[in-house]
């Protein structure tokens, strides 16, 4: 029976659950569980709170489950801006421009000194694909095809496509999806907690120099770009050690390697600045972004470049010399329309400042938990982007088993507190709790989150 016009059935919570169970393929979860357990259906959100179809309220400490809803739920002015734009002009292919697209590109690059060009797409994976294609085309057009290799970092994540997984440093996410695209080369992670004998700037220099060692091994004339997250996200909230980023940029300049920063997670205030790389005073050549661009109110991503990168494709003597790429839904006007409102709200409400202030508060509360629970080995993060690495033994730093980490997350969910954790990503090291609440978070919100984690750890670990 077609339920499209069956109002009673469409408004029946049980019918919705059963329709979901019968027809929806859920992301990042073993769907067999839904043979015996109802799928979770979120039906409403306001501020930092969401309600499921059974009426249960949750405080959301991961901004929509995947670090996206930076300005919180229920922002009518964003929805109104999208509605008004769609009625006026909903879509045209990106070979033409749009009013919100032009306005947003100008506003965005004004907050990214040194970068000037915006290529619109619709997901973080797609934005990174664009960057990889740019690097490859530059190699063919300007370097005889040699500088085509792209370096990526262990534990970093750049998306779900085959090319993005080829640049993915999380083995369990990559498992069973090979063979992968050639020309992607891994460099070591920079997690100081797992460094062993060095700390601080000493480790920062060594971790950066490890990248140079890979470059020299592969051949500098074969490396086109280095793609890194400013702070490793799902790989464990890894804040690079002092001196790391400065040395990384120095290495890229030395060998004429484009520096590509993946800001899909860290962008738009998550760390307390517009972009995570701005915490370190570096100048990237390419920056990709998605999640927080429109805060989940519309699908949009951006690949932003310097004018120098853009100019490498300006050559009307070569019929194939321009960037021969399209993102169909990069032409949808809802994305930049929503993004303009999100940017305005972020500035009007000083959400960058709130991220800094509340991030420091959350970090302090997590350190208090660390004093109370021996299973917390380290607390680390920047702004409203915090992690707590869990261990079975502090002295040996043996990771807490993933099953217990996930049990803590499940216990929090049962309490009405939504947190995240690294899972099914890095064999043996899926042991970090992840916190990325919307940038509107208050001390009261964060107290509630930390209290839920405290109770869960007590029950699961003791």
Q: How would you describe this protein?
A:
With 462 residues, the chain is of the alpha/beta class. It has two domains: 41-71 and 351-460, Aspartate Aminotransferase, domain 1; 77-348, 3-Layer(aba) Sandwich (Aspartate Aminotransferase, domain 2). The protein has 15 helices and 16 strands. It has helices spanning 7-10, 13-23, 63-67, 76-88, 99-110, 124-142, 162-166, 171-174, 200-218, 244-254, 307-311, 334-348, 351-372, 402-415, 443-460, and strands at residues 42-46, 49-52, 57-60, 117-121, 149-153, 184-187, 223-228, 258-262, 286-289, 301-305, 376-381, 386-393, 398-399, 417-418, 420-421, 432-435. Strands 4-10-9-8-7-5-6 form a seven-stranded mixed β-sheet, sandwiched between helices. Strands 11, 12, 13, 15 and 16 form a five-stranded antiparallel β-sheet that branches. Strands 1-2-3-14 form a four-stranded mixed β-sheet. A hairpin with a 4-residue loop joins β11 and β12. The chain is globular and about 60 Å long. The mean pLDDT is 96. InterPro entries: Aminotrans_3 (IPR005814), Aminotrans_3_PPA_site (IPR049704), PyrdxlP-dep_Trfase (IPR015424), PyrdxlP-dep_Trfase_major (IPR015421), PyrdxlP-dep_Trfase_small (IPR015422). It comes from Rubellimicrobium roseum. One of its GO terms (molecular function) is transaminase activity. Belongs to the class-III pyridoxal-phosphate-dependent aminotransferase family. This is Aminotransferase class III-fold pyridoxal phosphate-dependent enzyme.
């Amino acid at each position: 029976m077609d339920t499209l016009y069956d109002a009673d059935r469409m408004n029946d919570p049980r019918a919705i659950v059963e329709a979901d169970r019968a027809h929806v393929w859920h992301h990042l979860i073993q769907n067999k569980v839904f043979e015996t357990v109802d799928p979770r259906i979120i039906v409403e959100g306001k501020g930092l709170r969401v309600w499921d179809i059974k009426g249960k309220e949750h405080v959301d400490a991961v901004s929509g489950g995947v670090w996206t809803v930076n300005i919180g739920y229920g922002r009518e002015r964003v929805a109104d801006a999208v509605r008004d734009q769609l009625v006026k002009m909903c879509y045209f292919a990106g070979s033409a421009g749009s009013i919100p697209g032009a306005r947003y590109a100008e506003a965005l690059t004004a907050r990214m000194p040194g970068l000037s060009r915006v290529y619109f797409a619709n997901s973080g994976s797609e934005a990174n694909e664009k960057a990889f294609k740019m690097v490859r085309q530059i190699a063919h057009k300007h370097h005889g095809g040699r500088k085509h290799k792209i370096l990526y970092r262990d534990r970093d994540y750049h998306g779900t496509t085959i090319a993005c997984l080829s640049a993915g440093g999380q083995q369990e996410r990559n498992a069973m999806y090979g063979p992968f695209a050639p020309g992607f080369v891994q460099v070591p992670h920079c997690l100081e907690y797992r460094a062993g004998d060095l700390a601080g700037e000493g480790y920062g220099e060594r971790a950066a120099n490890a990248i140079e060692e890979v470059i020299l091994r592969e051949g500098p004339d074969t490396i086109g770009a280095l793609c890194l997250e400013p702070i490793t996200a799902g790989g464990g909230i890894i804040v690079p050690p002092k001196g790391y980023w400065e040395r990384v940029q120095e290495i890229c300049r030395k060998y004429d390697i484009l520096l590509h920063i993946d800001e899909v997670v860290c962008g738009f205030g998550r760390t307390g600045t517009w972009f995570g790389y701005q915490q370190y005073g570096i100048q990237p050549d390419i920056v990709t972004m998605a999640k927080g661009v429109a805060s989940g109110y519309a699908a949009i991503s951006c690949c932003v470049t310097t004018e120098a990168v853009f100019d490498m494709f300006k050559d009307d003597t070569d019929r194939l010399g321009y960037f021969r790429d399209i993102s169909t839904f990069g032409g949808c006007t809802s994305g930049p329309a929503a993004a303009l409102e999100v940017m305005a709200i972020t500035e009007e409400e000083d959400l960058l400042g709130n991220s800094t202030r509340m991030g420091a508060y959350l970090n302090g509360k997590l350190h208090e938990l660390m004093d109370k629970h021996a299973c917390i080995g380290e607390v680390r993060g920047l702004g409203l982007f915090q992690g707590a690495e869990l261990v079975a033994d502090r002295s040996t730093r043996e990771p807490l088993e993933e099953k217990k980490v996930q049990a803590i997350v499940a216990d929090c969910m049962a309490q009405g507190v939504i947190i995240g954790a690294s899972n099914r990503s890095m064999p043996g090291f899926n042991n970090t709790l992840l916190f990325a609440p919307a940038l509107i978070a208050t001390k009261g919100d964060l107290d509630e989150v930390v209290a839920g984690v405290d109770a869960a750890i007590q029950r699961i670990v003791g």
